[in-house]
Design brief:
- The chain has 362 residues and is of the alpha+beta class.
- The chain folds into 3 domains: 61 residues, 434 Repressor (Amino-terminal Domain); 113 residues, Arc Repressor Mutant, subunit A, CATH 1.10.10; 132 residues, Beta-Lactamase, CATH 3.30.450.
- It has 15 helices and 9 strands.
- The longest helix has 16 residues.
Length: 362
């Protein structure tokens, strides 16, 4: 079953038409129509919204659980029948041939259709649960060579599967971002059905949240679940289940414990509680990027002058600066009738002259 079929199935189970699903997810009806027709895949950001609206996980929408009755392609049905009726030894031979055809080196001897489960296996078995993740140690265990090269700004990294090599662009400097980059490349390397000879990371600067490429979404899912293991992360995020949430506390957690970027950890917080949080990136007094579940934020709008983000951009500091406090919800939420409040925690980055904002529903 494909992504479009899973969306249609869950929408019909909830007795929603495309317009109703779009409204519930904070998307446009034409987008739902395109997703369900298969003309385009939803981006990761859209998958977060759809998972909330359909009351399913992102993993389900991306990977699902294939059942024999859901397989419609005749050749796939025949292959499944051959596999099911084979001896254990013959199954192993078929699997090894499939791996050989796909150019896959079965180093893990682990089988699943979910990237999240591969990440869990790598963390618990390959790395023996060692935390925080040493991504270079993992690459070495997998016989992957990491080299620095000039990708001429075409991408931040390139995986050459047949050569067991990851090339990092020489312009990459931020260690947390490099860690996520390598983890994503390892995801492409380890997921058996990722059968291309090479994979790029953030090709031509494309955001990982806006991509609609399923392989990229799956590799990103592997990376985030590896670097921020759910069994550890959920215990920390439970501490943010109530009250005003400050980026100051999240930044300490990101820097000191997980060794990841603040944006990455904030995005995980949104996934953890889609009803309560939203992450906004802004610069030049405009909302540039939004990552949210049920909170429908005014994306591509000019920043409201009463927001903390606007204040920070109005008086830019030469050092990182945090401003936070309660603000009227209609400053941010795309609903003029909303008369509630949000807690806004915004931090200014002087290097990029931009603001990262975490919004908490009160």
């Amino acid at each position: 079953m494909s992504i479009k079929e899973r969306i249609i199935k869950k929408r019909k189970e909830l007795n929603l038409n495309q317009t109703e699903l779009a409204k519930r997810a904070g998307l446009q009806p034409p987008a739902i129509s395109q997703y369900e027709s298969g003309n385009r895949n939803p981006s990761y950001d859209a998958l977060v919204k759809l998972s909330h609206a359909l009351n399913v996980t992102i993993d389900y929408l991306v990977s699902g659980i294939e059942q024999e009755e859901n397989i419609t392609e005749p050749t796939e049905k025949v292959l499944l029948k051959i596999f099911q009726n084979s001896t254990q030894q013959k199954k192993q031979e078929i699997l090894e041939y499939a791996f050989l055809s796909a150019g896959y080196q079965n180093q893990l001897n682990f089988f699943s259709t979910e990237p999240k489960q591969y990440a869990k296996h790598v963390f618990n078995v390959t790395l023996n649960g060692e935390f925080p993740i040493d991504i270079y140690k993992l690459a070495k265990k997998l016989n992957l060579t990491i080299i620095i090269g000039n990708l001429e700004s075409q991408a931040e990294a390139l995986l050459l599967k047949n050569n067991n090599t990851i090339i990092l662009d020489h312009n990459q400097k931020h260690e947390a971002r490099i860690k996520m980059t390598i983890a994503t490349m390892i995801g492409h390397y380890l997921l058996p059905w990722h059968s291309q000879a090479s994979y790029y990371y953030r090709k031509q600067g494309k955001s990982t949240l806006s991509t609609d490429n399923i392989d990229e979404i799956e590799a990103s899912s592997f990376a985030t679940n590896l670097i921020t293991p759910p069994e550890i992360l959920e215990k920390d995020l439970n501490e943010f289940s109530s009250g005003n949430i400050s980026l100051k506390n999240l930044k300490h957690l990101a820097d000191e414990k997980y060794k990841v970027s603040l944006t990455s950890l904030c995005n995980r917080l949104v996934e953890f509680d889609k009803d309560r949080f939203a992450v906004v990136n802004s610069s030049e007094f405009e909302v540039k990027k939004v990552f949210s579940g049920s909170l429908v934020i005014k994306e591509k709008y000019e920043l409201n002058r009463n927001s903390k983000a606007y204040e920070l951009l109005s008086t830019p500091s030469k050092v990182e600066e945090l401003r936070e406090g309660r603000v009227p919800a209609n400053i941010w939420i795309n609903d003029s009738e909303n008369d509630g409040f949000l807690f806004e925690s915004s931090i200014y980055n002087p290097t990029y002259k931009s603001v990262l904002t975490l919004l908490t529903k009160l």
